[in-house]
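Structure, all two chains, one model.
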Amino acid sequence: MLSRVAHAVYWMFRYLERAQNIARFVDSDIGLYLDDPKGQGNLWHSLIAATGDHALFEERYDWYDRDSILAFLTMDTEYAGSIISSLAAARENARSIRATISSEIWEAVNSLYLQVRSLKPVYGSLADPNELCKIVLSGSYLITGLYYSTLNRGDPWHYARIGMMLERADKTSRILDVKYYILLPDAKLVGTPYDNIQWAALLKSVSALEMYRKRYRRIAPPDVIGFLLFNREFPRSIQHCVARAFESLTAIGGSASAVPWLSAQRSLSRLKTEIDTGTVEEVLSIGMHQYLDTLQSRLNLVYSDLYSNFFEPHERAQQGVTSGETRSADA
Amino acid sequence: MFDNYAVSDVWDEFFLEQGVPRRHLLGVWDDLQRISEGEFRRLHAEAQRSLIRSGATFLVYGNEEGTEKIIPFDLVPRIITHQEWSHVERGLRQRIMALNLFIDDIYHDKKILADGVVPRELVLSSKTYRQECEGLNPPKGIWIHVTGTDLIRDTQGEFLVLEDNLRCPSGVSYVLENRELVKRAFPQMFEHAGVLPVEDYPDMLYDVMDYVSPGQGSSRLGVLTPGVFNSAYFEHSFLARKMGVELVEGQDLVVEDDVVYVSTTMGLQRIDGIYRRIDDDFLDPRVFRSDSVIGVPGLFEAYRRGNVALVNAPGTGVADDKAIYTYVPEIIRYYLGEEAILASVPTWRCDRPEEMSYVLEHLDSLVVKAVNESGGYGMLMGHQSTAQERADFSERIRANPRNYIAQPVVELSQAPTWLDGTGSFGGRRVDLRPYVLYGREINIIPGGLTRVALREGSLVVNSSQGGGTKDTWVLPPEGEAHAQ
C-alpha cells in the first residue's frame, strides 16, 4: 500500500486510541475526586503528568485546578494532546485515506468529531465532562467495532492495529508510572480503604478493575503491576499490546519474508522478549519509574523504525526499483 | 404545498399548467401528494444531515466556524422521459465523437484549419491549446475519456448545449450520492417509476481506464488528487473508493526512466493508468507550470512514451474554449458529415469587430463570459448588472476581445423544489450535466447531475453561487414501468 496511506492509517487509529485513553483517565478520576475531594491536588496533577506535557499546561493555565485541567485535556484546541485535537487529527487522517478505510468507519469518525465539537464549553471547561467522556468512549468503541467487522485483514488493518497497540502500551505505562509515584510513598496508608480506592482507580482508569478481580480478587500492588504489565489475557496490558503489534508487524507485506529482519521487527521483537520474560520483582528492583521510562523510549524507537522501514516517502532517483522489493532492509 | 407553485412562460419540467402534471408524471404526482409537509421537512433535514455525516462537503476558506459546507440537496427528483433522454444521448455521442476527432486533428495535421472551417488564429491563440501536445498519440486515439456537458432547456423544452467540459468535469459523485438519498427517502415512488440505474458509473470508469492503460487487464490504476484541501476532494476519494483503486497525490508518484511508480510500503511499484483530477497547468512542472507542487515531474514524458495512461489526455481544453464552442456544429459536419443533433446557444464572439460592437451596445441584456472560466466566475449577467460592472466588462472586452463571448439570456427550465422556509414547493431553474465516458465505446449514465438555482428567479446554478443539486431520473421506455 502507499507509504503515505500506511502512515495516515497508523496515525488515524493511534489518535483515536489516544482520545479514548484520555477520556477514560478523565472519567475515572472524576469519580475518584468525588471520593476524596481534599486529596485533589495530587490527583489532578497526576492527570497532567500522565500526558507528559506539564510545561505546555503551565504555559497556558495558572493553577492545577479541576476546571483548568479538564479544559486542557478535553476541549483545548490549542493543545495537540487534548481529546478534541486528537479527534480532529484522527478525522483529518481519515479524510486523507477515505479510499482505504470503509465508509462506515469514516462516517463514525466524522460523526464523533462533529458531535464532540458541538459540545459547548462553559468558562473554558465543560459543564458535564462525564457526558463528553461517555460520547468519546462509546464513539471510539463503535469505531473499533467497525474496524474489526468491516475491514479486510490486509496491510491497512495491520498498520492500524500497530498504531492502536503502541499508543495503548504507551498510555498504560504512563498512567502506571504516575499513579505508582503518587500511591507508593505514603507507607502508613498501605492497606487502608483509601489506598484500596486509589489502586482500584488506577485499574479503572485502564478499564482493568473488573478483569483484575476475576483474576486476583484482592487488590495488592504487586498483582496490579503484574496484571498491567505482563498479563497475557487482558487487552490493555503492555504484554498484550506488544504481542499484538508484533503479530501485525510480521503479517505486513514486506516484513513477512524479510531476510534479514527489518529494523522495526528487531526493535519490537526485542521489546516483546523483554516483556514476555519480565517479572514484577525485576521491575521493582530496577525501580518502576526507571523501568517504564526505558519501556517508553523503546516504544518510540519502534515508531521511528516503522517510519524509516515503511512510511518515509521514497526519494526520487532511487535505485532498486522492482515491484515487491522492500526498500530498506536496514534503517 | 403546491398552492403557490406558479407555472410561467419558461419550460416546466413537471407541470403542463398550474396543478396539472405532465402525463408521464401522473404516478409520481400521486405518490408525492401523499407525503405530508411534516414528513417532507423531516426527510429534507435527514438528507442534509446524511450529507454532512458522509463528509460530502467542500471547504470554505476564511471562516473558521463554518469551514465545511455541503452543497444543498433538493429531494424532489428532476424527471426526464426515455424519449427525451434518447435524443440527448444521441446528441452527446455525436458531439463527443466529433470533438475527440477535432482535438486529434488540432494536435496533428490541422486539416480543419487548413480547410478554413475553424480559423487557425482562433485555435492557436486559445489559452488551453497546448503546444506541448503536438504530435501526441493517446492510447486508442481517445483524448476525452470523461466529459460533463452542460445542457439547458429553452422555453420550448428543447435541450441546448451551454458548454462542454472536457478537462476535469466534477459532480458525478453527487449523482451517485443523490440517488442513494432519494432511494432512501422515497423507496415506493422510486420503485413505481422504474427509474434507470446510474450505479454502474464507477465500473464503467474503471473499464475506460483499464482499456487505455498499458497494463490492460491487470492494470494498477489510481485517481490523482491535489489533496484534502481541494474543494472536490470528496469526489476524488469517492471515485477511488467506488472503483477500488488507490487515491494518490503528486508526492506519492515518482517517475524513473519514463515509467511512473507509486511509493509504497514495499518500495516503488509501477502504476499504469491515472485518472488525474489536476489541471494540465499543474500536472508536470517540467512541462507546464514550473511552480506546481501538486504535480509529478516527468509524468508528461512518461505519458508521451505510452508508459502510463492519463484520463483525460492533456490538451483537451482547446475544444471547450467558449469561442471554439461556436464552431461545434461546423466541427460535427466536418468530421462526421452530420448535422448537430443538439443545438447550441446563439453566441457572439468578441474577436469579430462587428460582433464586439453589438455586444458592447447590448451589455445590459446579454450574458458575457470569459472563454476559459468555469464555475460562474468571469461572467456578467447583463440584465442584473450595475452600470459600474458593465463599464468594467466593456473595458476588459476591449482590452482582450479574444477572451470574451456573449450569449442572450437563455431562460432555463424550472422544476419543483422544496422550500424549507415556507414548507411548500416552488419552481426553481435547473440545468443538466450528463457524464459521458469514452472507452471501448461511448457510455452515458442515464440522467446526470441536475443543478438548481435555489434563489427565486436566479439563473445561476453553480454551487459557488448558491446553487444546489437534484437527483435526475430517466424513466424507462413507455409501457415498461413497473406495474403499480
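The first strand of chain A starts at residue 121 and ends at 122.
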